[in-house]
């Protein structure tokens, strides 16, 4: 049986959200935007427990040709370097404040089969912040933050 807190959290989470900000902040307070200052994207949660997240640098250079599978090594590397995408199932913890993204497909192969834990902070019905565990890179601790706004219905 699903707890009332989980049901309420799922009801607030289900839908499509547009990216507002994707950043990481160092333990010294330095803010870095891994996909650039104009990162765009969507995250979607379905009522039946699936999710998909897509984030990209909109300023990526187009390929020279029209075939999606015929890019040069440099074109493919640049396109992938400016994109973050994964999808799978999701599950909420009993407190309704933590969501687990159970990754089935990902541009980053290391994430396939993993559980990406996100702390939920619903600021309002239209704003969602997802936090992940801080990580260490080159001796610096970074704290990631992703902020979303509920997409308008068309």
Annotation keywords:
154 residues; mainly beta; 8-stranded antiparallel beta barrel; 2 helices; 12% helix; 49% strand
Brief overview, please?
The protein has 154 residues and is mainly beta.
Overall mean pLDDT stands at 93
Distance between the termini: 34 Å
Please tally the β strands and state the result.
10
How does the helix and strand content classify structurally?
mainly beta
* Major beta sheet summary: 8 strands, antiparallel, barrel
Return Rg in Å.
17 Å
Strand order of the largest sheet: 1-3-4-5-6-7-8-10
Q: Strand-and-helix sequence, N→C?
A: HEEEEHEEEEEE
Portion in helices: 10-25%
Report what the structure shows.
With 154 residues, this protein is mainly beta. The chain has helices spanning 4-13, 73-81; strands at residues 15-26, 31-32, 40-45, 50-56, 83-92, 98-106, 115-124, 127-131, 135-137, 140-150. An eight-stranded antiparallel beta barrel has the order 1-3-4-5-6-7-8-10. The chain is globular and about 50 Å long. The termini are far apart. The mean pLDDT is 93.
SSE blueprint and pairings:
Blueprint: H1 4-13, E1 15-26, E2 31-32, E3 40-45, E4 50-56, H2 73-81, E5 83-92, E6 98-106, E7 115-124, E8 127-131, E9 135-137, E10 140-150
Antiparallel strand pairs: 1-2, 1-3, 1-10, 3-4, 4-5, 5-6, 6-7, 7-8, 8-10, 9-10
């Amino acid at each position: 049986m699903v707890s009332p807190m989980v049901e309420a959290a799922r009801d607030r989470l289900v839908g499509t959200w547009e990216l507002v900000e994707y950043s990481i902040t160092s333990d010294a307070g330095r803010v870095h935007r891994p996909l650039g200052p104009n990162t765009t994207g969507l995250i979607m949660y379905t009522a039946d427990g699936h999710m998909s997240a897509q984030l990209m640098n909109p300023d990526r250079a187009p390929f020279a040709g029209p075939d999606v599978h015929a890019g040069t090594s440099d074109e493919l590397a640049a396109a992938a370097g400016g994109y973050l995408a994964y999808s799978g199932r999701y599950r909420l913890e009993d407190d309704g404040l933590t969501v687990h993204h159970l990754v089935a497909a990902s541009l980053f192969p290391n994430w396939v089969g993993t559980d990406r834990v996100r702390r939920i902070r619903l600021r309002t019905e239209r704003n969602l912040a997802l936090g992940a565990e801080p990580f260490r890179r080159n001796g610096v601790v970074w704290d990631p933050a992703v902020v979303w706004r509920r997409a308008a219905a068309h």
